[in-house]
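Self-study notes.
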Amino acid sequence: MSVAAATAAGYLGRRAAQKERVRILYRRALKDTLNWAVHRHLFYEDADLLRARFETSKHLEDPDTIDRMIADGEAQYNKWRHPDPYIVPWAPGGSKFTRNPTPPEGDSNWIPGMARMERGVPRTALDRLKLVSGGLTAVCGGELGESQSFTGILLWNTSAITEHIVVLAAILRSNVRAK
């Protein structure tokens, strides 16, 4: 490979890396602009100004100048990043991500799987629920174990999509069953 070909390949590789850095910087800045401008009409104005700033330096050819401008742009982006950006609720860090924390140690009123029961027991879990005749006492297999008993109220929540049973219960400290 000749020196000229190696130089050209190095130049083209550097330009490709610069284009990628500019693309990433523009996308990040555009997304961060949406965090600052909460209304779309304000965002569109800011997005046009941002695009104009990138377009003014589009004609540059010197690789060192381009690297310096990219570094300045990244520094300015990091300086003006939003302190509390919008995060999709179900994404890590969002408002709904793991919003049901584990219960504290030593909480005697907690039933294993209670968070699942509060959301509603799916119909497939009905196989594990055995109602004992003569009262509201029930014995549940699976998560609660065969020997533990609990009192509860069964409420039916019917919808067009699914049927759920919500079991509101408290574990009895003794193994005494209601008659």
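Second protein, same conventions, sequence then structure:
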Amino acid sequence: MRHNHTYLLLFSLVAFLLLPHTAFAKESPHKPIASLRVSVISGIPDILGASLSLKMFHPFELEAGASSLVLGYSFYGKAGASLQIFDNRLPIGTGWSVRGLLMGGYRFIQGEIFGNATSHAVMLTAGIEATLWLFAHFGLELQLS
């Protein structure tokens, strides 16, 4: 009788180690809702900026932002598509994800370099953003556009 318990325990341990674990397989992945960015020297002529992206309409994304220039300011709004390239997040929501972006929009620039100047522009941007998710709904994002 004692050997039967030993064999049962050994069989249970081997089965646990060899069988695939699917406890989290049916959980839905964590989807980003919004992204708040603060940028410093993000490009020429931007010095300091902030933007808000709404990502809840996947695969579509809306973004609005403002930035300060050397002697002026800028506002913009854009919309486009965001496609998932890579998602290696754990079921608890931590890990890496990479997305590709293609967006278009409008930018207003007001500056005073050699006098008062106003500029209106149509813009088209493409980029890749990598996010290190520290918590299920909080991550650090690196964007190349």
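Instructor comment on the second fold: Confidence is low (pLDDT under 50) at residues 21-28.
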